[in-house]
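User: Hi! I'm working on a homework problem where we have to compare a predicted structure to a textbook description. Could you give me the structure for the chain below?
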Amino acid sequence: MNIRQRTEEIEKLILSPYAVACIDSVGRDKPEDKCIIRTDFQRDRDRIIYSKAFRRLKHKTQVFITPEGDHYRTRLTHTLEVSQIARTIARSLRLNEDLTEAIALGHDLGHTPFGHAGERVLNEVCPLGFSHNEQSVRVVEKLEKNCQGLNLTYEVKDGILCHTGNKQADTLEGRVVRIADRIAYINHDIEDAIRAKVISQEDLPPDCLDVLGDTSSQRINNMIINIVKNSIDKNEVIMSCDFYEASEKLRKFMFQHVYVGSVAKLEEGKAELMLRQLYNQLLIMPELLPTEFNNMIDADGMHRVVCDYIAGMTDRYAVKTFTDIYIPASWRDFH
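Assistant: Happy to help. Predicted structure tokens:
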């Protein structure tokens, strides 16, 4: 018995009957030889961490575009916080922590530059539509590894796809990531908004704080405990009614006071205009696309490929590309 097989045997003994043991995975689209050390879900996690799309998350906006300060969240730090919350819940419920971690680390790989502003633009200008969760699946299936994809297991891709939107994940591990994503962004966005003086602590709905806690760490801890208490030994991942209602009210508060129309969003119009211009220009000048994207046009069509290229950009690369196309460079004497 090798190390992987021993791990699979341990999973049988300790996991909840509602968890997905690795040996019960639906598997990969392309069969592969097993690793002698890592389970398939562990390999999926590693492939995501080593992917180029994962590294680019460090230069993608969470809420605040190009903030002046080192402590504002990026899409990467958000992902790490989601992973930590999700792993804590999964371990407490005896779910598969490796599967949960892989889903959490991969859930935002397809996110655009400039956060949801970029997502809105691509959804408007691309006739095929755009959503970051579907794009995340496309990244791992098609775009990564020189267009070979990462060949992840079904359960990881399903969890990535269903971390937002109307469809629930097939696994409890995927549902854990979905709720961990909300816990993370509500609370860390409150911290960032207070730091940016967009809101103050006193602006937060007091009845929500009475239920959830006064500080970010208190709220996260209390929400995790509440989920575990209400979900343990059940085939569902849920909060109590009072916690759910308080969480939703706090989320709505953030949409009203931070996510839409606040001073934090003043630069979004510029970002949206820039991405629209880039999209339209690349449609008529595909020679500006890198070779690997140009090679995909015949199979996937121009709109899909341009959408893929822009969605994969970091904030600063989008600005650089726009500058290279539209802003005159300084004259230099090459002689």
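For your comparison, note the following. The two ends are 69 Å apart (CA to CA). The chain has two domains: 39-117+135-265, 268-323. Good luck with the assignment!
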